[in-house]
# Entry
Amino acid sequence: DDQPRCSFIFPSIIDRSPLVVAVSSSGQAPVLARLLREKLEALLPASLGQMAQVAGRWRGQVKRRLASIGERRRFWEKTFGGRFATLVANGQTAQAERQLEQDLHRFAAGDEGAQGEIALVGAGPGDVGLLTLRGLQVMQQADVVLYDHLVSGEILDLVRRDAERICVGKRAG
# Structure
């Protein structure tokens, strides 16, 4: 990269069409951007594109059947983390669509999603880098987060922005 002679920069691309992820350092550290893209490439399954295409075909129907944005978010989170995703990953798209239809019917009837879940995410010594991937996923799916004063701001910053946060008061000492 020759910044003085460049008028634009191409980011490193991860293509799971229609999902596309771009990584750029604005020319500051292209090797770092490439290394990050390589790590992300390994983490993102090839089936994400197919999953997004199926979801796109069903998006309107889901919106009609589930009135609130919260219901739809919970439905899609459960769907993308459940049997539907496994079927798509295994190339069983027709079965995945049937699964999605069944899940939507159950969810709209109130048979799914009404029951909450509780998860305990340990923050260990408080280092954000020591959180597990599953712990991070749970924090980003939570509607309500109970925490104490021992939890760092860095860790709380990883919680979904619209989640309700309730401090339960425990302090060091």
Remarks:
- The mean pLDDT is 88.
- The two ends are 52 Å apart (CA to CA).
- The chain has three domains: 3-43, 48-108, 128-167.
